[in-house]
Amino acid sequence: VQLQAFGGGLVQAGDSLRLSCAASGRTFSSYSMGWFRQAPGKEREFVASINRSGGSTYYADSVKGRFTISRDNAKNTAYLQMNSLKPEDTAVYYCAARSGSYYYTVNSEYDYWGQGTLVTVSS
Description:
Order of helices and strands: EEEEEEEEEEE
Strand content: over 45%
Distance between the termini: 37 Å
Largest sheet: 7 strands, mixed
Helix content: under 10%
Mean pLDDT: 96
Structural class: mainly beta
Radius of gyration: 13 Å
Oligomer: single chain
Low-confidence stretches: none
Number of helices: 0
């Protein structure tokens, strides 16, 4: 599967942004999806994940209550709705996919990665 993440941009603290991850192929519904981010000088970190049906989600503590991951299997697309953005959310955001039934939170558990989209939150 090929992934393309888009929707990043420059916003102010407190604003909202929605990222999208478009997947190629006909088996999107068999993949669990995840969002990760990498800030300058830091390692890539887990943000959110969703299982293949969309019925189960999991979030990093730092974004819980502010971000929402979702998916539309009919459109082969996963989303990350980001509300109440903070300057510390500034990073390149990556979507990732792997086959499986659950949600996954570790980088190495994912087989496919998108190219990343930059989110910059100004104070």
